[in-house]
Amino acid sequence: MSAKVESSGYVLPAPGVAASLDPLFRPAALARRTFERRARETGHPLQIRFALEQNESAASRFALDLMPDGHPDARANFWMLERLVKLALWTRGGFRIRLDAPASLVEQLRAHFRDSATGRFDSEIVGRSVYGHPIEVVTAHELPPETMATTALGGHLEGCRIGFDLGGSDRKVAAIVDGRVLWSEETEWDPYYQPDPQYHWDGIMDSLRRAADHLPRVDAIGGSAAGVYVDNQVKFASLFRGVAPDVFERRVKNIFRDLKHAWHNVPFDVANDGDVAALLGSMSLGGGGVLGIALGTSTAGGYVTPDERITPWLNEIAFVPVDYRPDAPRDEWSGDRGCMVQYLSQQAVGRLCRAAGIDLAPGMPLPAKLREVQGMMDAGDPRAREIYRTVGAYLGYALPELASVYDFHHVLLLGRVTSGPGSDLALETAREVLRVDFPELAARIDLRMPGEQDKRHGQAIAAASLPALHH
Fold first, then answer.
1. Quick count: other Cβ atoms within 10 Å of Cβ 33?
2. Which one of 182, 231, 388, 391 has the lowest number of neighbouring Cβ atoms within 10 Å?
């Protein structure tokens, strides 16, 4: 069965493998593929191109076939264009969009970033916070070539190191000597809505000191956290969403530089948690072409190129649209619907409990809900199995959407949601999705998870390898 979008008149195809607890789920990858095929079948599709510029020397290019003018489904053209632009923005990053399209679509996209709440959020966070400039849409018939500069990331294991990973519900830390883990620990915390960054500082310092107690000395410290970090400066991070903008500028922007100073200026590097997840995959596999996805309080993504390097891309996949139905679950922060954070995270598990017939206290925190579901999974409860099957279907349909942006052959999944036997069921379902609806991807994508220890602490261990030692 397909779902008709009343405001546009076009049809969203139903998935070949149903999300059992979410029967109205309509995958973005199927919707765009079907829409473009139908546009080409008209014989004269409207061919749209755009370049997304990160700076004057780095740009990404995208193309889309839309319905020709006069076609009944041409009313959906802007929706399809805006969803692709959103995918590009939150994966590749950038602030200037050079759009080769009819003037009406150019103006609609400008108005979206100027007038709509979700567009203004994207412009403020991606454009202004990360690149120092609100998103601008420029008419262009000649597009710049696709260019990017890649860099090496991590892989340094010599010496006495501390690695930490800052999640939305817990922080992890490990003490490592020459690549061997001496000690690791996980501590629950609640950073999202704390208005005073002293809370964050105290928590991070507590973990670092506890790790240092297990080392003869500290040669280097590496960290992983959701957000965008440039030269150890915080550009944007969900961990600090409760901090007022003026306080953010004074006390958060340079918090990791201040931590480095507090630790006597040892080599100290912080990176996006998704990139560190991909680094973990690259280190364990001994190669590149790795997409890392961490299913925690939010959804983190990272990418290591086939030649084992990282890109300057944004990789904030939590905000990538993966469900195109108009009443899809809403992200509480951006206000947008159908974003990945509601499908591959603790939020997804919590949201699916009611549909599975699991009654939990309304005020129960997400980590506690996840523990309940994982305990039920250990006991063989069929309701918990359906939650993991549904999450697996979400994953299976998210991967083709991400494959339109990243060139990967390996997917490494980790994070608190992947702990326990439910993860195997989720992987099995995701592989079924690829076989049924995307056989060309099923043949080339290797889906895997690390062992239980790496699932919970591998992120901190990979983060410890970020800084190179001074010689």
1. 17
2. 231
Look at residue 7 in the predicted model and tell me its pLDDT: 42
- What token pair was written down for 450? 């690390």
The structure tokens listed for 280 are 């973990």
Per DSSP, what are the bridge partners of residue 272?
225
**pLDDT tops 90 at residue 276:** no
**Which pLDDT tens digit goes with each residue over 352-369?**
999 999 999 988 999 999
* CATH, domain range 276-460: 3.30.420.40
Domain coordinates of the chain in residue numbers?
A: 42-139, 160-271, 276-460
Single pTM value for the model: 0.87
CA dist 288 and 65 (Å) reads 31
CATH 3.30.420.40 fits 160-271, yes or no: yes
Give the 3-state secondary structure of 81-141.
Answer: HHHHHHHHHHHHCCCEEEEECCHHHHHHHHHHHHHCHHHHHHHHHHHHHHHCCCCEEEECC
Q: Could you give the C-alpha distances from 18 to 15, 63, 110, 392, in angstroms and in order?
A: 6, 29, 36, 10
- The string of pLDDT tens digits covering residues 23-59 is 999 999 999 999 999 999 999 999 999 999 988 778 9
pLDDT confidence of residue 455: 58
